[in-house]
Amino acid sequence: MSHLCSIFSSWMPRKVVFFLRLTLFALASASAFQAPAFDLQAHRGGRGLWPENTLVAFENAIRMGVTTLELDIAITSDGVPVISHDPAMNPALTRDAQGQWLKAHEPLIKNLTFAQVQSFDVGRLNPNHAYAKEFPTQKPADGQTIPSLASLFKMVNQLGAKDIHFDIETKINPHYPNNTLEPQAFVSKLLEVLREFGMTRRVMVQSFDWRTLELLHQLAPEVRTMYLTIDSANYSTLKDGAWTAGHLLKDHEGSVPKMVKASAGKSAGVIWAPNHNNLTPDLVKQAQAMGLLVIPWTVNQKPQMLRFIDWQVDGIISDYPDRLRQAMTEKGLPLPVAPKP
């Protein structure tokens, strides 16, 4: 399929190639999901614009027009999946019930009930924290609390956003197993909510911890899986097999796409999500030739967005969905349509 599209790509317009390749992929995997023409993902709801992983950020992204809401999940002590990038309360963006900024990454969400989690305010960045300097244009929204995954699904349904997809990351670190539930329990709690709201075919579950993805292949093969990777001088999830469910690069000719494919097996709707600094045009082609989609993270500058679109990636995860919409327009790609009010 990808070989056929590569032959056509030498003379077809870019957006026609996108449509052909992804349409063929979607038809081949129709029982699992429907692939968008180009996946515009609002990272943490678009944290460059509004407080991350909050309902106000997700609603803004939906009304702007995105394909997918990217978000992260933690599980409370009473078993409620909540939307948080960190397994513990983050002092860069969290105030307690008295309005005081937290001093450290604590307490762990797994040790708090959902009601206790709701007592914290995550509606603005701590101006004294270095993290705030990364997003100087983020608008505050005081009073925002860490939402449950169920509350997000309810809001999406109320907005009539029937075409919105969800990219949900399981925040599990194999090197710190006591910070979260273990993979089986984590995945089970997540699936309970996905099934309750009938969202399994609108969701892709992503993780650096590939154990959760391999569990999903067994427990919910209709859910798309997204393999996160990063490989830098300072940090890598590809070195020792701890993150990759025991898969090693040396056993796959040093190829990350081949290692992803080996972990995914014959599962449909599989996505490779590399750190954008690790991606090359050749790796995009290699992955797509294996039937994988390629969606890099986190791409925030428009020149980078334009370059990746030229490489024919299948989507982009960005803190600035507004910039990505501009880049897509410049490249002649169709934009996601926001639901009518």
Description:
There is one protein chain. The chain has 341 residues and is an alpha/beta fold. It has one domain: Alpha-Beta Barrel (TIM Barrel), CATH 3.20.20. The chain has 11 helices and 9 strands. Strand 1, helix 3 and strand 2 form a beta-alpha-beta unit. Helix 3 packs parallel to helix 5, helix 6 crosses helix 7 and helix 10 crosses helix 11. The longest helix is centred in the N-terminal third of the chain and has 15 residues.
Oligomer: single chain
Radius of gyration: 19 Å
Domain unit count? 1
Principal-axis shape? globular
| Mean pLDDT metric | 92
Series of H and E elements? HHEHEEHHEHEHEHEHEHEH
Characterize the biggest β-sheet. 9 strands, mixed
Which stretches are low in confidence, meaning pLDDT under 50 for 5 or more residues running? 1-11, 22-33
Architecture in CATH?
Answer: Alpha-Beta Barrel
The CATH topology name reads TIM Barrel
**CATH class wording:** Alpha Beta
Going by CATH, the homologous superfamily would be Phosphatidylinositol (PI) phosphodiesterase
Overall helicity: 25-40%
Number of strands: 9
Report the portion of residues in β strands.
5-15%
Distance between the termini: 39 Å
How many H/I helices? 11
Supply the helix-strand structural class: alpha/beta
Can I get a quick summary?
The chain is of the alpha/beta class and 341 residues long.
Features:
single chain, 341 residues, alpha/beta, TIM Barrel, 9-stranded mixed β-sheet, 9 strands
Layout of helices and strands:
Elements (H helix, E strand, L loop, with lengths): L1 H7 L5 H15 L10 E4 L12 H10 L3 E8 L5 E3 L30 H4 L31 H10 L6 E6 L12 H14 L6 E5 L2 H10 L4 E6 L26 H9 L5 E5 L6 H9 L3 E2 L7 H9 L4 E4 L2 H10 L11
Parallel strand pairs: 1-2, 1-9, 2-4, 4-5, 5-6, 6-7, 7-8
Antiparallel strand pairs: 2-3
Helix pairs in contact: 3-5, 6-7, 10-11
